[in-house]
Amino acid sequence: MDHFHYLNGELCCEGVSLRAIADSAGTPAYVYSKAALLENLAAYDRAFASVPHLVCYAVKANSNLGVLATLARAGAGADIVSGGELHRALRAGVPPQKITFAGVGKTREEMREALKAEILVFNVESASELAALNETAQASGVRAPVAVRVNPGVDSDTHPYIATGMKTAKFGIPIAEAVRVYEEAAGMPGISVIGVQMHIGSQLTKTSPFADAVARLAELVLTLRTVGIDVRLVDVGGGLGIQYKDEVPPSPDAYASVLLPALRPLGVVVLLEPGRSIVGNAGVLVTRALYRRVSAEKTFVIVDAGMNDLIRPALYGAYHEIRPVLEAGRRRPGETVDVVGPICESGDFLARDRELPRVEEDDLLAVMSSGAYGFAMASNYNARPRAAEILVDDRRYTIVRRRETYEDLVAGESLP
Q1: Which of 20, 21, 61, 293 is 20 to 30 A from 150, alpha carbon to alpha carbon?
Q2: Among this protein's residues, is 344 annotated catalytic?
Q3: Taking the domain 4-32+280-410, which CATH number applies?
Q4: Whether the Cβ atoms of residue 283 and residue 32 lie closer than 8 Å to each other
Q5: Given 3.30.1330.60, 3.20.20.10, 3.40.50.300, 3.10.350.10, which CATH number is that of 103-272?
Q6: Which has the closest alpha carbon to 167: 149, 185, 155?
Q7: For 135-165, how does the pLDDT look when each residue is reduced to its tens digit (9 = 90+)?
Q8: pTM of structure
């Protein structure tokens, strides 16, 4: 179900007008649909209901406490990649026994914090990290639960910046070396080997890379059992794509249909780490048009949201649909424009050469499918306060992160 729709002439999130939110909370502002979050999470639980499983939401996609708490209350765990994300997940009410810790650069302090919290599992990405975790766990008087992240050497057919399963990626241990690393781990006094993990990339729109990767993972599990290492968790990562433009990504049901034939015979608990497919289409960025600038070569629509608010178009060349908040705006004559922000960079744009109905000054626009890697990647570049975040629940909404102030920008700084 599309939870962003026109109602009484205005684009709404569930039952709340985006114009009303903008008038009250200002712009730019991120707006999230609670119903969409819960619907997307439930789709994974239904798809994998035939096996023991746990959905660990990838916190890096959107780490707002309101989003995390909404998903935690619905039974989700958390996939984290830093001590800060651990703090956020725990603050939002995610049980530590539902937290997985990934990432290639965990510090020893982060390891200590996660060991103290008694998280479910560490996804170890290198032999060096394994040795450091073993030492840290021994010093803490505990054993660290570990799954080795295996790089299956699969081309995930996505943007190179978010492809993580190929041999050239910095992530994980090559599958050819995995048995040796597992045998080393099994002999370490501070390590308890409980699982195997993979993650091959993000915004995947085909099931074939998942099928290839999980087949290799299942073969590895069987090989490990022949040498006495009986893993009981198989973490297949995340990466399922969403529709930004004309993509047709597989549904969680289709995703499960290619994974379960290889996983079900193993008799393991399946861990899933979706992020974008949970929150991506559950959020929009609302921005206001400030000015029009027309030259012989280009027409620019200058808005109050910039690359510091949403960097994906500048960083990845990513496409986001842009809709007028007032439905009447859709009936205006079309024109080709660049939608740009106020940042002092030529790379500051939300859309280039985009055919849009004519946008006038003070019009409100919604940048669609911005719930994932939007606010999470925002910055204070050009000393710009970060946007507000709003969570809508039917006909009510809550400001789940207030707009930053100028004083927030200098908090923690001091004059020499």
Answers
A1: 61
A2: yes
A3: 2.40.37.10
A4: yes
A5: 3.20.20.10
A6: 155
A7: 999 999 999 999 999 988 765 444 344 444 4
A8: 0.94
